[in-house]
Design a protein that fits this description.
By secondary structure, the protein is an alpha+beta fold. The chain folds into 3 domains: 2-21 and 29-309, Alpha/Beta hydrolase fold, catalytic domain (Rossmann fold), CATH 3.40.50; 317-335 and 345-401, no CATH class; 538-557 and 570-711, no CATH class. Helices cover 32% and strands 21% of the residues. It has 18 helices and 24 strands. The protein has an 8-stranded mixed β-sheet with strand order 1-2-4-3-5-6-10-11, with helices on both faces. The chain has an 8-stranded antiparallel barrel with strand order 16-17-18-19-20-22-23-24. A 3-stranded antiparallel β-sheet has the order 7-8-9. Strand 7 and strand 8 form a beta hairpin.
């Protein structure tokens, strides 16, 4: 861990320690920036104490970016200004975190580490300010940092010691507005009796190196006032929460009731995990339980980063990846010449440019444009040096890998390459034709190459050879049909292929290429809140309604996106259009209202029915839709569902257990389960990530098993 000083926007100083590993090619796509906030009488070294208990070293081993700050007034961090009338110390600390500290930490360490979001890790008195900051972030229309989660320990709702002891400390232990706890008084409540051996000996030996004074304001507010107003902040927090209390915490009453009482206040959070860490003292992180607790915390942070990365920031959501626009392009767009009217861009394009140039992030288009325009006018728009350095390293890695790949391809027997020669049949061609081809696959480290011998030979042949190859492919089509028709399965049947028209000779060439997944996909197929539209009557298999226009966004790797926005696809009204919609497979659900939230669908092409399996919160079950032979994009398909609660075994099916699904024809889906969770509707939206479906026969058996199991029938 390295120490750092940072200058905040208000002129104050912030100190702390950090560990930001170099981002490698094998690093996860979504990575948290863990920001650790210590409690009273400790400082940032609390998270880097000891050899076996250091949270920072564990994070470094796992490759997780980690920053531990010194709260205002601790070590070299500037103290607070006087608390204004009508406010409290901990409320002001939360505002300070949100307005000054977290934005600066993100700007300094978040962008350079490639992190997706900040996840706060707070201990004891670091928790109140973190709760306030998280609530303020949720209600900030233009947050300057992404927040993905909040982890807390050593803070509760019911004090473990009488208030009289706190008053005694205030009356007798305050010097210059601060309170200092001698180790002989402090270690007992923090670690427990030494004979119990709850912390390693080296931690007790480090006592004086970890100890410092605390502010009277935070002690007084946390003891006497926080309980009166904290619930109003807790309910505003919108990020996932993980909370733990040591079983032998001496500062708070630790029981199932008190832990549940604390957790229940976070009604706005989509996920709240809470529990007692059996055997642990107040300072869980410094105890023998610290390593296990921190492993859980870092795993939770990784999940939060992945969830946040699925719909916001760094990549700005699935298929919202924008390359950096040049300053010339930005000038043409934001400072156009007289008479020119460049086409405006979408809001998340401007947001991406802010990130590319290291400017404070904003989801608001106008705010983003103003910041970019100001930087252009002031001639301060430049790529941060850490991003330039990172890009240079990535280019070197790519060039090196490319050289190794070319050398291995040229060598007859590459030293570290796996060479396999096999004949494959392109069985998933759009026009139903298939032919045998020979490929060579090379795997060197993380670089994979597929060399098609037929393609290489065809490139060397004349036009006459190409025609011969085309005729050969056409002659192989009947045999391909025969082999395809010989394989049948009730679990994953495929729709019949359309016959190739003889009047279109170009179809032969296209049929010889295997089906590949589209690389350009709509990033926002369904506008926000459309799932909340009222559906007054029960579903009748298919709903017909006004088509929804889809906002397109194309992934681009080497150039800024074009300023002309794409249109939307018109619905296909042909009677067999359902055959062209990819439905079967597993979907990645965005902005999950419950965890877990998994949906896999499978079309039974033989009977033109839809089956699905889902796990939503504590509910797991099966869904079934009737005739879907005429489904088209933008039209809702109704389904029924049957579920069982994993916690209490409660089964639900029959009247009122229905919903609808809607597909856009480009592997996106949205829908609604009516009355699934506590009688409330559950809306969702996601895109296809895996085309492997389900066993239809198994889904039918599970569907039929529900009434038999519920009524005890054989």
């Amino acid at each position: 861990m390295k120490p750092f000083p940072l200058s905040l926007t208000n002129g104050a100083q912030l100190s702390g320690i950090f560990s930001v590993p170099t981002r490698a090619s094998k690093s996860p796509d979504y990575q948290p920036l863990v920001v650790a906030i210590h409690g009273g009488t400790y400082f940032s070294k609390y998270f880097d104490a000891g050899t076996a208990t250091s949270a920072a070293r564990l994070a470094e081993t796992l490759g997780v970016p980690f920053v531990a700050i010194d709260r205002p007034g601790y070590k070299d961090s500037t103290g607070f200004p006087p608390v204004p009338d009508g406010s409290t110390f901990l409320q002001e600390e939360g505002k300070y975190l949100h307005r000054h500290i977290l934005p600066k930490v993100w700007q300094e360490f978040g962008l350079s580490s490639g992190a997706t979001a900040i996840v706060i890790l707070a201990h004891s008195l670091g928790s109140p300010g973190s709760i306030v900051a998280s609530a303020l972030h949720a209600n900030d229309p233009q947050p300057q940092y992404p927040l993905g989660g909040l982890i807390m320990s050593g803070w509760g709702t019911e004090h473990g010691r009488p208030r009289e002891s706190a008053r005694h400390i205030i009356e007798n232990g305050v010097v210059d507005g601060r309170i200092f706890w001698p180790l002989e008084v402090k270690d007992g409540p923090m670690f427990g009796d030494p004979k119990l051996g709850r912390v390693p000996p080296e931690i007790r030996e480090m006592g004086s190196d970890l100890n410092t004074s605390m502010s009277l304001g935070e002690f007084e507010d946390g003891t006497f006032h926080w309980a009166d107003y904290w619930a109003g902040y807790a309910k505003e927090v919108k990020v996932p929460i993980m909370y733990g209390m040591g079983e032998h915490d001496a500062l708070w009453k630790a029981s199932r009731e008190t832990v549940q009482d604390f957790a229940r206040h976070f009604t706005g959070s989509p996920r709240v995990e809470s529990g007692i860490v059996l055997g642990a003292p107040h300072c869980i992180e410094l105890s023998y339980w610290g390593r296990g607790w921190m492993m859980r915390c870092l795993g939770f942070a990784q999940e939060c980063a992945a969830a946040e990365g699925g719909h916001s920031l760094c990549s700005l959501g699935p298929n919202k990846r924008h390359p950096r626009a040049s300053t010339t392009d930005l000038k043409d767009l934001l400072l156009p010449k007289r008479g020119s009217t460049p086409k405006d861009q979408v809001a998340h394009w401007y947001e991406a440019q802010l990130l590319h140039y290291g400017l404070p992030r904003s989801r608001d288009k106008n705010t983003a444009k103003v910041r970019l325009t100001n930087a252009l006018s002031a001639k301060t728009l430049s790529v941060p040096k850490e991003i330039v350095q990172m890009e240079a390293e990535l280019k070197k890695e790519f060039a090196s890998a490319l050289r190794r790949a070319k050398g291995a391809a040229a060598a007859a027997k590459p030293a570290r390459a796996k060479v396999s020669e096999k004949a494959t049949t392109t069985a998933k061609e759009k026009k139903g034709a298939a032919r045998s081809k020979t490929t060579i696959e090379l795997e060197i480290d993380d670089v994979k190459l597929k060399i098609d011998r037929d393609t290489l030979e065809a490139a060397k042949k004349s036009t006459k050879s190409k025609k011969t190859s085309s005729a050969s492919a056409a002659s192989d089509a009947p045999s391909a049909k025969k082999s395809k028709g010989a394989k049948t399965s009730s679990s994953t049947p495929k729709p019949a292929s359309a016959p190739k028209s003889p009047s279109k000779p170009k179809a032969t060439a296209s049929a010889s290429a295997p089906r590949s997944r589209q690389t350009a996909r709509r990033s926002q197929p369904f506008p926000r809140n459309t799932s909340a539209r009222p559906i007054s009557n029960p579903p009748q298999h298919i709903y017909d309604h006004t088509p929804v226009s889809f906002h397109h966004d194309v992934e681009m790797d080497d150039a800024p996106p074009a300023y002309e926005s794409l249109g939307y696809d018109e619905p296909d009204d042909s009677p067999n259009s359902s055959a062209g919609i990819q439905i079967s497979g597993t979907y990645l659900i965005h902005q999950k209202p419950f965890y877990p939230f998994d949906i896999t669908l499978q079309v039974d092409h033989r009977q033109q029915k839809l089956w699905g399996r889902f796990n939503i919160g504590s509910k797991s079950g099966v869904l079934h839709a009737g005739d879907i032979s005429h489904v088209t994009p933008y039209n809702a398909v109704s389904f029924g569902w049957r579920s069982e609660d994993d916690d209490d075994g409660d089964m639900k099916f029959g009247r009122g257990c229905d919903g609808y699904l809607e597909f856009d024809g480009d592997e996106w889906m949205k829908g609604r389960f009516r009355g699934l969770i506590d009688g409330e509707d559950v809306d969702f939206q996601g895109h296809l990530i895996e085309e492997d479906g389900l066993d239809v026969a198994e889904m039918k058996d599970i569907w039929d098993e529900f009434p038999r199991k519920a009524y005890g029938r054989p």
